Amino acid sequence: MSFHYGCDEDTYHYAIGKDDWIPVSIAAMLLGKRLKEARQLIQVYADSQLWLRPESDVFLEWWETNAAPFERIATLDFDVPLYATDVPLEMDWPAKFSRMAPLEVSYQYRRCWKRVYVDMTEDFLAVSPVHADLGRLPALRDVETGLRNLLTTLDQFSMTWFEARGFKVDWELGLVQVEGYEALFYCSVQAY
């Protein structure tokens, strides 16, 4: 969802998308008129991954500025839904995914996102050696790797979905072109 584009000693610089290019993760979560649910997940991500408080003026202004582009994505509908047609059994998965309804795409994406970005109520960077060693257990690493791979797969499937509906997609950066979207550029100070 975000790009790390530089840092100083204790300052990190982030961007969420590019102007007129929204991260596929945000776009997929918004589908099916799920603005409220998407916002909650984006707030958790901004807080836990970017040190950007959801109640901050920066976050609130970014959300308000993008109200129209977010609404356009959230209310996407199609005269002849691709998902209403028969899907051949031999069709591969990215193509099958592109036949799903907007709400189905949003549901699957948000479901996966919640598993990858669990909202923890406590923050701490310093841990005991035993706690750090626990984090290196192969079983825990395998779960984390599997969840991240699932999210990457859903990014690719979602980009296929948007592309099938005529949107331009930046496959390298995971972005969907949406006119009027304004990127959030943010510098955070690691204050822990």
pLDDT below 50 for ≥5 consecutive residues: which ranges? none
The general outline is globular
How many helices? The count is 8
Order of helices and strands: EEEHHHHHHHHEEE
Q: Approximately what portion of the residues adopt beta-strand conformation?
A: 5-15%
What is the strand arrangement across the widest sheet?
1-2-6
Largest sheet: 3 strands, antiparallel
What structural category arises from helix and sheet content?
alpha+beta
**How far apart are the termini?**
23 Å
Number of strands: 6
The percent of residues in helical segments reads 40-55%
Our Rg estimate from Cα atoms comes to 18 Å
Mean pLDDT: 83
Question: Care to give the gist of this entry?
Answer:
The protein has eight helices and six strands; from the N terminus they run βββααααααααβββ.
What can you see in these coordinates?
The chain is α+β, with helices and mostly antiparallel strands and 192 residues long. It has helices spanning 24-30, 35-50, 57-65, 67-74, 93-97, 102-116, 129-134, 138-164; strands spanning 3-7, 11-16, 21-23, 169-170, 175-177, 184-189. Strands 1-2-6 form a 3-stranded antiparallel beta sheet. Strands 3-5-4 form a 3-stranded antiparallel beta sheet. Helix 6 runs antiparallel to helix 8. The longest helix is centred in the last third of the chain and has 27 residues, at 138-164. It is globular. The model has no long low-confidence stretch (mean pLDDT 83).
